[in-house]
Amino acid sequence: MNLGRSGRNLVLRFEGNWNVRETRHHEIDTLFSDLDREGSADALEVDMAKVGSWDTSLLIVVARAEDWCRKHRVNFLRESLPANVASLLAISEEVPERKTGRDVKKSSSIFTILGAMTITAIEGFKTALEFTGEAVLSLGRILRRQAAFDWRLFWLTMQECSFQALPIVGMINFLTGLIFAFVGAIQLRQFGAGIYVANLVAVAMAREMGAIMTGIIMAGRTGAAFAAQIGSMKVSEEIDALRTLAISPMDFLVSPRLLALSLMMPLLVLYADLVGILGGALVALTFLGISWTQYWNQTIGSMGLIDIATGLTKGAIFGVIVAMAGCERGMKCGNNAAAVGNAATSAVVLGITLIVASDATIDVIQEILNL
Amino acid sequence: MSEAQAPAAGLSHGNQSQAAIEVKGLEMGYDAFILMRDIDFSVAHGEIMVIMGGSGCGKSTLLKYLIGLKEVEKGEIIYHGRSFSEASPKEKEEMQRTFGVLYQGGALWSSLTLGENVALPLEQYTSLSAKEIMEIVSMKLALVGLKGFEEFYPSEISGGMRKRAGLARAMALDPAMLFFDEPSAGLDPITSLRLDELILQLRDCLGTTIVVVTHELPSIFTIADTSIFLDAETKRVIAHGNPRELVKEGKSDPKVREFLLRGHPEKTPIGLPK
């Protein structure tokens, strides 16, 4: 590639093979430096007689040369280009560049960021309130038998949230009970009060840990699944199809999941409590030398009905939270595969955060009410 | 002023006298089910071949065999004299880099912008600088009428634009061969015509060998140099040739004629200029 003169015209001569995979930027930069140095001319013509094979890489240099001519008020002789090169250049210019404004830099001052975060938080809160309101209205319609309630989905979700969740809920809660018993055993044994491990495990599992651990497991397992299922339905326009049939997606997709999980969660918590107590019993029997009868009597004596009821109520509340977080994130999902992933992640984070926050709130209320 | 001479179009890939694509005795299927057998055809350099046939006859499946998404169990696929079906995985990858594929929906990566989508093959397989890559991306998007859309995400543009952006990505490395799966499906007639014109320009200007799966009759008559017709009933290729020839009385199987005349043998084929 070189630059020459033909009278008052500059002649840009291309030669050899042009392949987009091989960089020639040094050669191209030298050429444009030469063009700048050559300065004034009436016109720039192109000679491609010695070009072998070529592709887009050649077009780019020609387009750049034409741009140079425009800036330096030199006439670019398009007619000197071979027909196929000129034709492709013409196609690339057929549709003018769209000024999208995407390259405009956004302000990044601290106030702008804080303002944007505040607006997002307020919008998020409003959206959550709206969604809760819609869910309540949907439940009202279901009770009045005015909703298109998908019973198949309800039974299927019940199965997924109960029987199919037993192994993971069982394992995690057994280990939780076991860990609590170990921690308690180390401390209580020093005072000869090893038997009180049973009290510690029973009350902790029944009031707090059974519900919290089950809630967290279900947020990761079922909440994420709800968000992904509904999100992918949104991507494939299945939710739009429901709306155009005047079927409320809340009645058809959200309420069955919400009801199924809220109904099953207390049962899962009860199961979690029992398994957790068994985990504690294993430690008491093997490391503290306490008999099974002693451990069981101590457990029964330490727990009141209020402890069990607290755990079950928390379970139901956590079920509502997990289902609402999952469904809300799914319904607000964007229209692409990445958005489905984000919806699932966000459902888990939101679910776990709300579980911990609501648990703390319930504990404070109970303390105030002396329950 | 020097004489304007047309340079050799496109990059040379292998011996130009050899067929760009040769398929010999290919059998297609899923598990034990045979979808099509004894497929034989060849495509010359710089030729556009259309794969035609009714819905469900295996057009898109044949394309999957051609681009290496399905393993050949029986038969052979040869590109520029080199066996593709019997190549080692490394050789196969090397050959696949000379392909560009446009999938039905564009198949753009949704987490990347259009610019990033087109740039990815260039970043992976060339040593070009970021500035050079951006220049190429800009040119490719300009060629498909999407100049200025570099920063848009696929979810922010229409289906037709996604398809055009998919084509820009398929052309990123200036492939020797381009494969299109239903390029006109879901597009309005004007956009569809523009896409057909672009396909013709790619053949004429860059000498690209192109294989198109379609059952859009106007496209078939506009772009095809040659074609094959897959028949689900006999599980064989029942016609091979230029559709303008195949449509003539007695030149092909009546099924092919009926297809090309849209079920009305007495009518003029749609898209064929009188």
Element layout with pairings:
The complex is a heterodimer of chains A (371) and B (274).
Chain A: E1 2-6, E2 9-16, H1 25-38, E3 43-51, H2 56-71, E4 75-76, H3 83-94, H4 110-143, H5 151-161, H6 166-188, H7 197-235, H8 238-244, H9 249-287, H10 292-302, H11 305-331, H12 337-369
Parallel strand pairs in A: 2-3, 3-4
Antiparallel strand pairs in A: 1-2
Helix pairs in contact in A: 4-9, 5-9, 6-7, 6-9, 7-9, 7-10, 7-11, 7-12, 9-10, 9-11, 11-12
Chain B: E1 21-30, E2 33-43, E3 48-53, H1 59-66, E4 74-79, E5 82-83, H2 89-96, E6 99-102, H3 114-125, H4 130-143, H5 159-170, E7 177-181, H6 189-206, E8 209-213, H7 217-223, E9 226-231, E10 236-241, H8 243-246, H9 254-260
Parallel strand pairs in B: 3-8, 3-9, 6-7, 7-8
Antiparallel strand pairs in B: 1-2, 1-4, 4-5, 9-10
Q: Strand tally of chain A, please?
A: 4
What is the tally of helical segments of chain A? Answer: 12
Characterize the biggest β-sheet of chain B: 6 strands, mixed
Name the CATH class of the domain at 21-98 and 175-260 in chain B. Alpha Beta
Explain this structure:
- The complex is a heterodimer of chains A (371) and B (274).
- In chain A, 72% of the residues lie in helices and 6% in strands.
- Chain A is α/β, with parallel strands linked by helices.
- Chain A folds into 2 domains: 2-94, Transcription Regulator spoIIAA (2-Layer Sandwich), CATH 3.30.750.24; 148-369, no CATH class.
- Chain A has a 4-stranded mixed β-sheet with strand order 1-2-3-4, with helices on one face.
- The mean pLDDT of chain A is 89.
- Chain B has a domain at 21-98 and 175-260: P-loop containing nucleotide triphosphate hydrolases (Rossmann fold).
- Chain B is 33% helix and 22% strand.
- Chain B has helices at 59-66, 89-96, 114-125, 130-143, 159-170, 189-206, 217-223, 243-246, 254-260; strands spanning 21-30, 33-43, 48-53, 74-79, 82-83, 99-102, 177-181, 209-213, 226-231, 236-241.
- In chain B, the strands form 2 sheets. Chain B has a 6-stranded mixed β-sheet with strand order 6-7-8-3-9-10.
- In chain B, helix 3 crosses helix 4 and helix 4 packs across helix 5 (159-170).
- Residues 1-13 of chain B have low confidence and may be disordered.
- Classes of the chains: A alpha/beta (371), B alpha/beta (274).
- At the A-B interface, strand 2, strand 3, helix 2, helix 3 and helix 12 of A face helix 4 and helix 6 of B.
